[in-house]
Amino acid sequence: MKEEVSESAIRLRAMIEKAIEDHKITRDEYDKILNIATEDGYIDRHEQALLGQLQQMIEDRVVKFVI
Known about the structure:
The chain is mainly α. The chain has helices at residues 7-22, 27-38, 45-59, and strands spanning 24-26, 64-66. It is 64% helix and 9% strand. It has a two-stranded parallel ribbon with strand order 1-2. α1 (7-22) packs antiparallel against α2 and α1 (7-22) packs parallel to α3 (45-59). The longest helix is centred in the first third of the chain and has 16 residues, at 7-22.
């Protein structure tokens, strides 16, 4: 049975993809991403994977925090 992707995971993906395209993310954008992931009180598998990918890209400096 295929698991349905949540609406918040779709919004999360869009915000993360923008950060990847820009190669940068602001603290405000990062906070919004975390808020989207936690707004329903549950971080599903898709959201966990997306957050993990973003965190790895930040650690690898593919995506940089900007002020």
